[in-house]
Amino acid sequence: MKPSERRKARRLAVQAIYSWQLSGNNIADVEHEFLTEQSLDGVDVAYFRELFSGVATKKTQLDDLIIPHLERPIDEVSPVEKAIVRLATYELTFRKDVPYKVAINEAIELAKSFGADESHKFVNGLLDKLVARK
């Protein structure tokens, strides 16, 4: 498996998490929609599935790890930033094979791609605090 396949899986997972957060649709329906309507060329589909379902099923546990490091209520965090931070927190917590620097760097790149101008700084600062606490 190439690192670029995981990078593409993360990008797709963030989009699916974002969609799920906003729509409130069933996890399986959102996953099916993404797997049938998106280009999967060069995507590690198994990793996408793990990330998406892992974040969706462990949302409360992930938020419990994130909330102590926020300076505002989690409901005030933009949906894009929330999706990225939840995904990175999942990797940092449940994927011990992913070096923490890789998880943080990937999250920063996702924030640069999908977030507002300063999102990457927010994501970086939050994840740095989360890693320091572990």
From TrEMBL:
Span of domain NusB/RsmB/TIM44: 7-130
Signal peptide positions (record): none
Stretches assigned to coiled coil: none
Keyword Transcription regulation listed: yes
InterPro entries: NusB-like_sf, NusB_fam, NusB_RsmB_TIM44
CDD domains, sorted: Terminator_NusB (cd00619)
UniProt keyword annotations, A-Z: RNA-binding, Transcription, Transcription antitermination, Transcription regulation
Any GO MF annotation of the entry: RNA binding
Source domain of life: Bacteria
GO biological process terms on file: DNA-templated transcription termination; transcription antitermination
GO cellular component: cytosol
NCBIfam families from the UniProt entry: nusB
Function as written in the Swiss-Prot or TrEMBL entry: Involved in transcription antitermination. Required for transcription of ribosomal RNA (rRNA) genes. Binds specifically to the boxA antiterminator sequence of the ribosomal RNA (rrn) operons.
Family: Belongs to the NusB family.
PANTHER family: ANTITERMINATION NUSB DOMAIN-CONTAINING PROTEIN (PTHR11078:SF3), N UTILIZATION SUBSTANCE PROTEIN B-RELATED (PTHR11078)
Entry protein name: Transcription antitermination protein NusB
Organism: Shewanella morhuae
Gene of this entry: nusB
